[in-house]
Amino acid sequence: MLYEVLHPVVTPLATAIWRPQVVGTENVPMTGGVILASNHLSFVDSVVIPLTAPRQVAFLAKAEYFTGTGVRGWVSREWFTGVGSIPVNRDDPRAAQASLDLALTHIQGGGAFGIYPEGTRSRDGRLYRGRTGVAWLALQSGCPVVPVALTGTDQIQPVGSRLPRRAKVRVEFGRPIEVTGRFDGVPQGRARRELTDEVMAAILAMSGQEWADEYNQRQPDLPG
């Protein structure tokens, strides 16, 4: 498996260069389905989390990460393929739901799955309101959600920068949020909203970001 080849090589190298501070890895269950829900600051977040998590984590990744050209495109394609990421065309709502269905299958099969409830990366550093896909996955699978807070990843490769830089990076894995039995009898829409808000509150408490009580809107004219 490509992940098993890349991870032992890339992790020590990346750790030596960026020396990330990693907190709370004991909060990530080592077996069984689990959802890692993180804030989203940079393209490299989907590299940082798999490198620092104590087990393999797959992500939904925008289709462009699999179709890039040049050296960066090759590295992106090989990494996301290697960690088992699922490509999604963000301009097609039906494809997005199909990707969530694939993610659900992955979780129900005992895998760890990473998701960004904000939907797209924050360009002003604030934490935006979460979309309810994370709660849908948790409630459908019955699996716990581990909130994840990233800081400093936006400085590794700022918007417009072609090459990565050294930056102070911190990754914190919070306590699992259990869902089993907690929302019995609660209308589905309300349950999804309440659980999503709980996840975002946990991320906010760890990241220290300013809260933006609105949805983050993707800017299609910019990468990421």
Describe the protein in words.
The chain is α/β, with parallel strands linked by helices. 37% of the residues lie in helices and 16% in strands. It has 6 helices and 9 strands; from the N terminus they run αββαβαβαββαββαβ. The strands form 2 sheets. The protein has a 7-stranded mixed β-sheet with strand order 1-8-7-2-5-3-4, with helices on both faces. It has a two-stranded parallel ribbon with strand order 6-9. Helix 3 links the parallel strand 3 and strand 4. Helix 1 crosses helix 3, helix 4 packs parallel to helix 5 and helix 5 packs across helix 6. The model has no long low-confidence stretch (mean pLDDT 85).
Profile the largest sheet.
Answer: 7 strands, mixed
Number of helices: 6
**Distance between the ends:** 27 Å
Oligomeric state as shown: single chain
- Globular, elongated, flat, extended or rod-shaped: what is the shape? globular
Give the proportion of residues in helices. 25-40%
Radius of gyration: 16 Å
Give a count of the beta strands, DSSP E runs of length 2 or more. 9
User: Structural class of the helix and strand makeup?
Assistant: alpha/beta
Percentage of residues in DSSP E strands: 15-25%
Uncertain stretches of 5 or more adjacent residues = none
Please tell me the overall pLDDT: 85
Strand order of the largest sheet: 1-8-7-2-5-3-4
Q: Which sequence of SSEs, written as H and E, runs from N to C?
A: HEEHEHEHEEHEEHE
Protein name: 1-acyl-sn-glycerol-3-phosphate acyltransferase
Organism: Ornithinimicrobium pekingense
GO molecular function: acyltransferase activity
Keywords: Acyltransferase, Transferase
